[in-house]
Amino acid sequence: MARLSFPRPVAALVAAAGVALLAACSSAGGAPAGAPGPDVSSPPPASFAPTTVTLLTHDAFAVSKRVLAAFTARTGITVKIVTAGDAGQLVNKAVLTAGNPEADVLFGVDNTLLSRAVDASVFSPYLPEALSRVEPALRALVPDDAVTPVDYGDVCINIDQEWFARHHLAPPTTLADLTAPAYKNLLVVENPATSSPGLAFLLATVARYGEDGWQSYWQKLRANGVTVVDGWTEAYDGEYSAGGGKGARPLVVSYGTSPPAEIVYAAAPKPTHPASTVMTDGCFRQVEFVGVLAGTSHEQAARAVVDWMLSPAFQADEPLSMYVYPSVPTTPLPPVFTRWAVRAPHPLALPPAEITANRARWVDAWTETVLR
């Protein structure tokens, strides 16, 4: 089976959870007290005079040129894409410029960081007409009509199935299995202080074992030889035995959508099946959102960009551009995605507000438990 390297599916590495945010920015540029709020349901016009809308996003954002060009041709809006590093850096930048933004739309804040942005009044509320078509469970995560769910994916343990077959060892099926002696020195994870999937995996263990048990679980993982690296690329393409670097570890924290990417990015002749399978227990669901930035001078055009991200064309483009599931469940999926991508039947979750309130403390406690 070919070993390969491919672009990371979704959610670039997050910034250190302890980065301080300037609370004073949360009200900068806001409306005067008592002023009427924005009409969150007013749809934008169908077309505009030539207008440029700046989209602030993370480094993992991707959209097909044809989909982008069709939107410009239909609306007159040119989308200028500006990347701000990883998801944590993206949110930090938006918070520090709240009310006086350097862009018009922000895409890529996820449910692990959402409350931070909303509490800082980063977004101008907007309810797109197509929101009713979005998966109800995703809509339920949105506070105060601030943002719109665009996509989601599950952070899960990926398994090098061929490695386990060669070693005549049954692969793990649960989080608890990962602490068993049979899997000693086989797992690589990302640091939650520097990595989005690493943070998601930490949150999965908090959701599964609770405040009284998650640190004990990580103590067991440490005793069982878990390796920690800074980010997804180092884990998947370096340490993982089915990744591009032909590493020594057959278990890695990655995504439920990694297997179809292995097929798509493989050199010809394409393999008939991916090297990796997905352990569906202990997955954490990440949801990405888009929102109009408060203070934009292009409010209506920015709303049109939000509408576009729920359009059939954009939603259908996501699976093979960013390796995520579209938020509109009726969107057709490409065959390679349907066959090989995994959507966890019972993903773990925590309320965004709970994550915001505890993230820094959890990451600090994890660092004490695992690295020191």
Could you explain the architecture of this structure?
The chain folds into 2 domains: 23-29 and 41-152 and 287-333, Periplasmic binding protein-like II (D-Maltodextrin-Binding Protein, domain 2, 3-Layer(aba) Sandwich); 154-285 and 343-370, D-Maltodextrin-Binding Protein, domain 2 (3-Layer(aba) Sandwich), CATH 3.40.190.10. The protein has helices at 65-75, 87-96, 114-119, 136-139, 161-166, 196-209, 214-223, 232-239, 258-264, 299-309, 312-321, 335-340, 352-370; strands at residues 51-57, 77-83, 105-110, 123-124, 148-160, 187-190, 227-229, 251-255, 276-293, 325-326. Strands 1, 2, 3, 4, 5, 6, 7, 8, 9 and 10 form a 10-stranded mixed sheet that branches. 33% of the residues lie in helices and 18% in strands. Helix 6 crosses helix 7 (214-223) and helix 7 runs parallel beside helix 13 (352-370). The protein has 13 helices and 10 strands. The two termini are 38 Å apart. The protein has 372 residues and is of the alpha/beta class.
What structural class do the secondary elements suggest?
alpha/beta
- CATH domain class name of the largest domain: Alpha Beta
CATH architecture tag of the largest domain = 3-Layer(aba) Sandwich
> Helix share of residues?
25-40%
Can you tell me the overall shape?
A: globular
Kindly give the count of domains: 2
Q: Sketch the major β-sheet.
A: 10 strands, mixed
Indicate the mean pLDDT: 88
Number of strands: 10
